[in-house]
Amino acid sequence: MLNQEGCPGNMLAIKDAMDVLEGRWKLPILIALSSGSKRFRQISKSIEGISDKMLARELKDLELNLLIRRDALDEASLIAEYTITEHGRSLEQVLRALYAWGQEHRRQVIGK
Amino acid sequence: MLNQEGCPGNMLAIKDAMDVLEGRWKLPILIALSSGSKRFRQISKSIEGISDKMLARELKDLELNLLIRRDALDEASLIAEYTITEHGRSLEQVLRALYAWGQEHRRQVIGK
Predict the structure, then answer these.
(1) Mean pLDDT of the residues in chain A
(2) In whole angstroms, how large is the CA radius of gyration of chain A?
(3) How confident is the model over B22-67, as pLDDT tens digits?
(4) B78 φ, ψ (degrees, to nearest 5)
(5) What residues of chain A lie within 8 A of the CB of B4, using their CB?
(6) Which residue of A6, A35, A106 is in closest CB contact with B31?
(7) Nearest CA to CA, how far is B55 from chain A (Å)?
(8) How far is A42 from chain B (nearest CA, A)?
(9) Coil, helix or strand for A94?
(10) For A47-91, what is each residue's pLDDT tens digit?
(11) φ, ψ of residue B64 in degrees (nearest 5)
């Protein structure tokens, strides 16, 4: 993409992927769920600083994007469990690429 | 990262990489420069909708992040040429990973 005249059509897919990851909370939530299904309160406890309102909004967004699944355990009391989906786990390669580049970037920019 | 208990320390490098790519204009600018060095006006013409003020700001930011280099061609009239650096080109792998995942995401979410 950067080794030839870039194709603007590729930008749409890149933007889609960026949108899914953007913001402060989505990755911490996915990481919290990567070790197993959790209830709302368990996720909330494992992520410092997130409000219930924000967590509810982000969970909804991740669910709509098919990255997590919500399973109702008890309809009466609205208890549910959240599980990362296969599609959610498929972000692994993206995260690895971002991580490797981010580390190198840190070396380049701060190392100077 | 998503296949085991995620390490919060990794988040910093991932966030660094995301920060560099975020926003509407950085990628189009890098793509515009991927085919060769360009002057301000040439970049401006190749990116629809960007204002001069925004382009100047983004070029400065990309330069500070060592993704592009600014070479003064004529100090008197402030003419300069912008070139993507090796570090800028090293984003290729990140873009490929984002592109591949974004395409699959589109299939998953819109294909339903």
Answers:
(1) 90
(2) 17
(3) 888 999 999 999 999 999 999 999 999 999 999 999 999 999 999 9
(4) 60, 20
(5) 34-35
(6) A6
(7) 18
(8) 14
(9) helix
(10) 999 999 999 999 999 999 999 999 998 877 778 999 999 999 999
(11) -60, -35
Q: Which of B10, B17, B98 is opposite residue A105, by nearest beta carbon?
A: B17
Which among A31, A95, A104 has CB closest to B90? A104
Asked if B99 and A30 come within 8 Å (Cβ–Cβ), the reply is: no
Phi and psi dihedrals of A81, rounded to 5? Answer: -120, 140
Contact A102 B31 (CB under 8 A): no
Q: Tokens standing for B65?
A: 């992040």
DSSP A32-67: HHHTS-EEHHHHHHHSTT--HHHHHHHHHHHHHTTS
Interatomic CA distance for residues B60 and A70, integer angstroms: 44
Number of C-alpha atoms within 13 angstroms, CB side, residue B31?
18
Q: Do B105 and A87 touch (CB under 8 A)?
A: yes
Report CB contact under 8 Å: A1, B96. yes
> How is residue A14 written in tokens?
């890149």
Q: What is the per-residue DSSP string for B39-71?
A: EHHHHHHHSTT--HHHHHHHHHHHHHTTSEEEE
Q: How many Cα atoms occupy the beta-carbon half-sphere of A33 within 13 Å?
A: 26
